[in-house]
Amino acid sequence: MNEPQAQILRPLRIGDTAPDFRARTTMGDKSLSDFRGRWLIFFSHPADFTPVCTTEFVALARASADFDAADCALLGLSVDSLYSHLAWVKAIEEQFDTKIGFPIVEDPSMVVGRAYGMIDDAAVDSTAVRSTYFIDPEGLVRAITTYPHNVGRSVAEMLRLLQALQAVSKGPNVAPENWHPGQALLSPPALTAESIAGQSNWFCHEVGQ
User: Fold this and answer.
1) What is the mean pLDDT of residues 109-131?
2) Does residue 161 lie within any of the structural domains?
3) Tally of domains in the chain
4) Is position 64 within any domain?
5) Shared-domain flag, residues 30 and 68
6) What range defines the domain where residue 132 resides?
7) CATH number of 39's domain
8) Are 32 and 18 in contact (CB under 8 A)?
9) Dihedral of the CA atoms 190, 192, 195, 201 (nearest 10)?
10) CB contact at 8 A, 115 and 19
11) Residue 187 contacts residue 206 (beta carbons within 8 Å)
């Protein structure tokens, strides 16, 4: 495994370039830069063969058509070995009749996890958090979510957040609470007192998509 090329000493933040790396996955060697040109959701899970992680992977696999329709790839990671990943994927396919169609990175040295802040520098394993990075086609981090190891993520919210990020990336508009595709976006906030005074409904001025 090649160490990430862009070592970030401080925690990874929105707007940073996602650190590149090359590693073994369940679908062959992959580099993060292989996904340039499309959106990518890169996410960590604490361990293979665990109940919460399995529910997440089954849900992600079953929603893969929705992510494909949004031109977004999925990429998982944990500290488990490639052989453990392959055995887990096979078990999921057999027990849930669900094929995992996205690669899973092995990170036994925790090099990638630490570079992304998925694992605390003082941690001895990766069971602390479930981190998700929404990376745009240029390789920039556009959103980060973190859950504790004992609470699963919402795949529906992952998809909604992706779609909202894509919608606002096309212009200056902003997405309101619980925005979904097909709903109106909002115009940016006014920058002067005069422009605010001219907007009777300044807080909810809607624009088309």
Assistant:
1) 75
2) no
3) 2
4) yes
5) yes
6) 22-154
7) 3.40.30.10
8) yes
9) 40
10) yes
11) yes
Catalytic residue numbers? Answer: 53
Give the ranges where 70-127 is alpha helix by DSSP (H). 82-96, 111-116
Q: Give the model confidence (pLDDT) of 55-114 as tens digits.
A: 999 999 999 999 999 999 999 998 899 999 999 999 999 999 999 999 999 998 888 988
Measured in residues, the chain has a length of: 209
Q: Give me the amino acid identity at 6.
A: A
In a domain, 203, yes or no: yes
Contact 89, 106 (CB under 8 A): no
Radius of gyration of the chain (CA): 19
Handedness of CA 32, 159, 37, 85 (dihedral sign): positive
Please tell me whether residues 119 and 187 are part of one structural domain: no
Beta strand segments in 17-172, E? 22-23, 30-31, 39-44, 72-78, 104-106, 129-135, 141-148
pLDDT of 195 reads 58
Shared domain check, 90 and 126: yes
How much is the pLDDT for 115?
A: 87
